[in-house]
């Protein structure tokens, strides 16, 4: 889903160059570019590796890039490498490296998304939110409402929300008077619903059409 959405954002070659073949990783400061290449060559053909260094001292910042020849190789590296590397797809080069490093540090240090996400984490740790993150203003439940400007196809919407473990049902409802889409999603646990809302609210599906995902009252005590 992620690759399909990214490819719709520009020409195929530009997207592959900027968004789908280059990964950003956290590494020990003692690593050389050769060390980095050695650790990640098992996932595919590497075009180049680079380590981000302090411009003043020349010391490694403990961050690096690995560029593969194919998007599938970068995806495999993200999914299969040790989670201590916190591997993600790199931002396009037109975004300043300082800004991206700041975003990366602030996001990767938060424990709620430990595990490799592309963009979904299939690890059991996906529900390990910080307590501060779970203090959401709106009532939390296991049931979600999904709204779209475009009508939904039952099988496609089910497949999208089934990327988050614990999906119990997906009920697509149609309004004969409008062309908009509406569906009710229910998960087996509130943690799965929280994660699905976190990842899919605002997600473009299909590209250009943002989903609105909110909690629906399911009759249970939301304080749990």
3D architecture notes:
By secondary structure, the protein is an alpha+beta fold. Among the domains are: 15-87, RRM (RNA recognition motif) domain (Alpha-Beta Plaits, 2-Layer Sandwich); 141-213, 2-Layer Sandwich (Alpha-Beta Plaits), CATH 3.30.70.330. It is 30% helix and 22% strand. The protein has 8 helices and 8 strands, in the order H-H-E-H-E-E-H-E-H-H-E-H-E-E-H-E. It has helices at 2-7, 12-20, 33-40, 71-80, 97-108, 131-134, 154-161, 190-200; strands at residues 22-26, 46-53, 60-68, 88-89, 143-148, 167-173, 181-187, 212-216. The strands form 2 sheets. The chain has a 4-stranded antiparallel beta sheet with strand order 2-3-1-4. A 4-stranded antiparallel beta sheet has the order 6-7-5-8, covered by helices on one side. The protein is elongated, with a radius of gyration of 20 Å.
């Amino acid at each position: 889903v992620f690759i399909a959405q990214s490819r719709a954002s520009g020409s195929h070659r530009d997207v592959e160059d900027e968004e789908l073949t280059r990964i950003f990783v956290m590494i020990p400061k003692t690593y050389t570019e050769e060390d980095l290449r050695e650790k990640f060559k098992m996932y595919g053909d590497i075009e180049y590796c680079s380590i981000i260094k302090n411009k003043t001292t020349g010391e490694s910042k403990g961050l690096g890039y690995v560029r593969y020849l194919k998007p599938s190789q970068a995806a495999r590296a993200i999914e299969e490498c040790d989670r201590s590397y916190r591997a993600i797809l790199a931002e396009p080069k037109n975004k300043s490296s300082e800004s991206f490093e700041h975003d990366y540090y602030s996001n990767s240090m938060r424990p709620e998304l430990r595990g490799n996400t592309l963009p979904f984490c299939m690890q059991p740790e996906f529900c390990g939110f910080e307590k501060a993150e779970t203090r959401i203003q709106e009532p939390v439940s296991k049931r979600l409402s999904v709204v779209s400007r475009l009508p939904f196809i039952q099988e496609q919407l089910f497949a999208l929300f089934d990327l988050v473990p614990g999906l119990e049902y997906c009920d697509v409802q149609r309004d004969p008077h409008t062309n908009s889409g509406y569906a009710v999603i229910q998960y087996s646990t509130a943690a799965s619903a929280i994660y699905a809302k976190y990842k899919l609210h605002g997600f473009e599906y299909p590209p250009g059409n943002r989903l609105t995902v909110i909690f629906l009252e399911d009759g249970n005590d939301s304080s749990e």
